[in-house]
Amino acid sequence: MSRETVRYDDAIVRKFLTATVVWGAIGMLVGLWCALQLAVPDLNIGPYFTFGRLRPLHTNAVIFAFAGNGMFAAIYYSSQRLLKTRALPTLSAIHFWGWQAIIAAAAITLPLGFTQAKEYAELEWPIDIAIAVVWVTFAVNFFAMLRNRREKHMYVALWFYIATIVTVAVLHIFNNLAIPAGLFKSYSIFAGVQDAFMQWWYGHNAVAFFLTTPFLGLMYYFLPKAAERPVFSYRLSILHFWSLVFIYIWAGPHHLHYTALPQWASTLGMIFSVMLWMPSWGGMINGLLTLRGAWHKVAEEPVLKFFVVAITFYGMSTFEGPMLSVKSVNALSHYTDWNIAHVHGGALGWVGFMVFGMIYWLIPRLYQAPLYSKKLASIHFWVATIGIVLYVVSMWAAGITQGLMWRAFDATGRLQYPDFLDTVTRLIPMYWVRALGGALYITGVLIGAYNIYKTWKARPATYEEPEIEVPPMIREAKAAVKQERVLERQAQPREHIHRRWEGMPMVFTVLTVVAVITASAFEIIPTFLIGDNVPKIASVKPYTPLELYGRDIYIKEGCYNCHSQMVRPFLDETVRYGQGGVPAEYSKPGEFIYDHPFQWGSKRTGPDLAREGGRRDELWHLRHMEEPRGTSPGSVMPAYPHLLEDRIPFDSLQSRVDAMAMLGVPYGKAILEDATVSAKQQAGELSAKLVTQGGPQGMEDRDIIALIAYLQRLGVDIRQAKGGTQ
Amino acid sequence: MIRFSELVSALSPTQYAELALVLFVLVFVGVAFRHGGKRRATEHAEAAQLPLADDTGWVSKGARR
To answer: What's the CATH number of domain A545-721, 2.30.110.10, 3.90.1300.10, 3.40.309.10, 1.10.760.10?
Structure first.
């Protein structure tokens, strides 16, 4: 049989690696800025750099720019070698530059307030389309490598990459289905409960298939290489893969415990989350035991140090996750900083350390020069490890403190901390410790960046691109040996079925898709189609055009990053969010049928707003937005003085209303013909009310009026359903 | 003709959850059964060697400092 040669494209790996470090540093610095904003509200520089606009920038940057580019570097390096073929250079280039353009677009549009208000899916529809195109380019490139492979068996890392590519595509498309109401404005086609369900099906699986499976693939490839021994148990890796792919996809509803989501879906999400513990720990054990007999190397090799701590954090996060998904734990932890601790254990510990372990292993090979300094790599490791510990412990403390303070009743049966601010100001010292932890982690990253730069400086004038002798392509070899194999099969026992799948990328991909789609369908289709899931409430009416625009401001400013709109059926919540001594009605599915997108939120840095309407007068809201600490001393909310200056774009209201009408929101004929009449009338009335309360004149065409109109509407309809008694 | 929503509503949410559980257990048992035996050990050992067999590029151990 003739031998052929191939040259691996490492230039693309170098590009993605550089992007990982650069965007990682930027994304983390934005995170540090956000952390400091919570301790020092004056660091909110409006209108573009407030917490509500920067926090999505931080999360998108670290997920899609840092972890994303890191994942692509890993995939291009390992897949070419595992498959003994070269990635297609044109597609690689489109993938790389397209992805960087998307990140740049995110960095521009998010501070401008262009957002879909769905966590980790904030980017508006034109960018979503670009993401889909670039992702498909990546997929074509990857599957072309599979097709052109010269190694029959697909190693376990490749299965994890396949699962990532197909599942992320499915998640991205379904969660971002929206009706545009302008070039950078759209409304989710789903509403309320269903939108929430779709979002957290996406959100949790983004964690699963963007932040876990590719990095497990990375672990299964780079850890054996760094330890110079094969993975502990290949069999366990098979179980790990299939269990993870099958179970993860069900877990999303645990983000919605005690909300208006039907209980069966929430329980199902919880049970599968607890089940997830086993495959996750199977994977962790498989990783750690790969180092059996090589532990002495861990003390010497920074690469292995990073990997060991990363895998340990994977174990801790995948224990903590199932625990947080248990309803009774979730009742305490949800909406608190405990979740922030949880995600950062996973992001900084697992993903971050996996990426840096890989980078330190790769750079001498990619830059063809010895690592500049092993000592600096070790310093990076220790500084960052201390940083993670400070970060996570302080946020655990903050989360549990906040959760316990919210639910505390005193001996007389009254809320012990009725003023929400008491529970905010108590956390400030912990926010400082968190900022210190984050700063240490970033210091580590910058030390790493310096080490990489110095290594790169010592690179040769031209990189060697060794020619590798490889067997013929499998698809060509297949044709040649077809007859031979028929004879072989007759003579030998049947080849093991999983081995055969592993040699058949398309079949394998289809099976993965089936696992993912089946699980999704079992949860999603009933949630959408069983009528009883969302009983209608007669008094719940669509938002007026002015309120709709006010809601768009709420979304634009990213209010959902700190305020939930979901009163859970707990005594402390119904009492806290009640009015005039009467407990509030807890949130019902029927309240949200016109909410495109839903605004339930996931964190209460500030109080819940589901029952905000009518709690305070209009002037309080205006003063509060202008300077939050004027009305609420100790508040950490950004100031929004620009809302008193910016004018309502009345001519844009019609397209917003029309988009909602397309989604089935029943606006009457008058509003569909001219939405501005109604909006101007309502704005005029509210503005007059402001003046009678002693407020400024001339607010009838300002954004603040629309936002107040929206806030004053929240929870009003459900009170009418109860005859005004609730 | 029966509507899709009617078809879906014919099962209660609990039954969906039970069906899901059965499906999961079947898949798990299937995969475990396929890969549990000692028979596969050689194949698995070969597969596990794959990442170690591709070191063909520039390799440098140690560091300058």
So the answer is: 1.10.760.10
Interface contact A643, partner B, CB < 8 A: no
Instruction: Give yes or no for A101 touching B (CB within 8 A).
Output: no
Among B17, B49, B51, beta carbon nearest to A268? B17
Contacts of B36 in chain A (CB under 8 A): 235
Q: Which residues of A touch B54 (CB under 8 A)?
A: 81-82, 84
Residue spans of the domains in chain A: they are: 4-457, 545-721
Q: So what's the architecture of A4-457 in CATH?
A: Up-down Bundle (1.20)
- The CA distance from A621 to A606, in Å, is 14
Is B50 in Cβ contact with A519 (below 8 Å)?
Answer: no
Contact A674, A654 (CB under 8 A): yes
Which residue ranges of chain A lie beneath pLDDT 70?
1-2, 481-504, 530-533, 722-726
Count CB atoms within 10 A of the CB of residue A475.
11
Q: pLDDT-derived band of residue B62, with 50, 70 and 90 as boundaries?
A: low
A494 at B interface, C-beta within 8 A:
no
pLDDT at residue B43 in the model = 81
pLDDT of A124 reads 95
Kindly report the nearest CA distance between residue B9 and chain A, in angstroms: 5
> Is residue B26 classed exposed, middle or buried when 0-12, 13-18 and 19+ CB atoms within 10 A define those classes?
exposed
Of B14, B51, B55, the CB nearest to A82: B51
Q: Integer distance in angstroms from the first to the last C-alpha of chain B? A: 77
pLDDT reported for residue A480? 72
Nearest chain B residue to A525 by CA distance is: B8
Q: Which residue has the tokens 């194949």?
A: B43
Average pLDDT, chain A: 92
Name the residue facing B27 among A8, A246, A365 (closest C-beta). A246
Burial A183-192 (b: 16+ CB within 10 A, else e): ebbbbbbbbb
Of residues A297 and B42, the one with the higher pLDDT is A297
- Report the percent of chain A where pLDDT is more than 70: 95
pLDDT of residue B26: 85
Q: What is the complex's ipTM, to 2 decimals?
A: 0.80
